[in-house]
Amino acid sequence: MGFLSNTGKKIVFWNYSRTSWQWDVLCVLILVFIFLTPKSWFENTEFRQRKTVVLSAEVFGGHADRTAIEQRAREVDGRPESQVTAVRERRDGTGKLIGYEVDIR
pTM of this prediction? Predict the structure, then answer.
């Protein structure tokens, strides 16, 4: 058991000298992990699928209900089955409504 624990400690704390074969093996294992790990392991699919659509208030004639905004956002996105998670009004410096930000998934 002492041999395994000593070897484990050396690997975890990288306690091998640079000229040893153990150093070379550890470096090769790290390179194998870097180059052969599937890209999908590091992708955040939740973030990648979310999208924000900005719609002009002029499209709705100044007054629009949430249903109309959601429908237009789905049309712009091209996915009628998408789910709207949030609708925010965008206003300019004077407080005039200029558009809507719609988060869809």
Answer: 0.49
- At 90 the pLDDT is 87
Give the Cα separation of 24 and 16 in Å (integer): 10
Burial class (CB within 10 angstroms; exposed 0-12, middle 13-18, buried 19+) of 23:
middle
The string of DSSP codes covering 7-61 is HHHHHHTT-S-TTSHHHHHHHHHHHHHHHHS-GGGG--HHHHH-EEEEEEGGGGT
Angstrom distance (rounded) from CA 13 to CA 98: 58
Q: Is the pLDDT of residue 48 over 60?
A: no
Q: pLDDT digit string (tens) for 16-38? A: 788 888 889 989 999 999 999 98
Backbone angles phi, psi at 2, to 5 degrees: -65, -40
Q: Residue for token digits 């306690």?
A: 15
